[in-house]
């Protein structure tokens, strides 16, 4: 880079600093102060993350349901993969073309759907329990 280009960049940087680049630093300090106050309020119990009517037990239950749904999904997928590998290396989906394969796939979809629906209701319940009473 030429000396002239360096001088131009240096001059531009000086103009930015002179034109109020300190303002964003003030914003950062203000934001930091507000976040520190919020953290203090949260730790002292003045502010609650999920409201009074949403104990951690409900959140743990939702997390457990999510984990169970993931496990079920992977169990079904692993079973499908192992079944398809034992039937035919060339046609991994051949098992789905049989009547038994279709019945099993439908059953798996129903299991996953019902678990997902139950999880959805639990999450919705958390949401509604956080609403302020009118």
From TrEMBL:
<feature type="region of interest" description="Disordered">
    <location>
        <begin position="1"/>
        <end position="25"/>
    </location>
</feature>
<dbReference type="Pfam" id="PF13270">
    <property type="entry name" value="CCDC28"/>
</dbReference>
<feature type="region of interest" description="Disordered">
    <location>
        <begin position="80"/>
        <end position="102"/>
    </location>
</feature>
<protein>
    <recommendedName>
        <fullName>Coiled-coil domain containing 28B</fullName>
    </recommendedName>
</protein>
<dbReference type="InterPro" id="IPR025271">
    <property type="entry name" value="CCDC28"/>
</dbReference>
<feature type="compositionally biased region" description="Basic residues">
    <location>
        <begin position="1"/>
        <end position="10"/>
    </location>
</feature>
């Amino acid at each position: 880079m030429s000396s002239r280009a360096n001088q131009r960049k240096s001059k531009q940087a000086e103009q930015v600093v002179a034109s109020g680049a300190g303002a964003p630093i003030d914003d950062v300090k203000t934001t930091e102060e507000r976040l520190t106050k919020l953290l203090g309020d949260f730790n002292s119990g003045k502010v609650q993350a999920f409201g009074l009517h949403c104990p951690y037990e409900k959140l743990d239950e939702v997390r457990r349901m999510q984990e169970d749904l993931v496990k079920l999904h992977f169990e079904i997928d692993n079973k499908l993969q192992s079944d398809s590998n034992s039937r035919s290396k060339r046609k991994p989906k051949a098992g789905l073309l049989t009547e038994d394969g279709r019945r099993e796939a439908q059953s798996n979809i129903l299991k996953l759907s019902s678990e997902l629906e139950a999880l959805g209701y639990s999450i919705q319940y958390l949401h509604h329990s956080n609403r302020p009473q009118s």
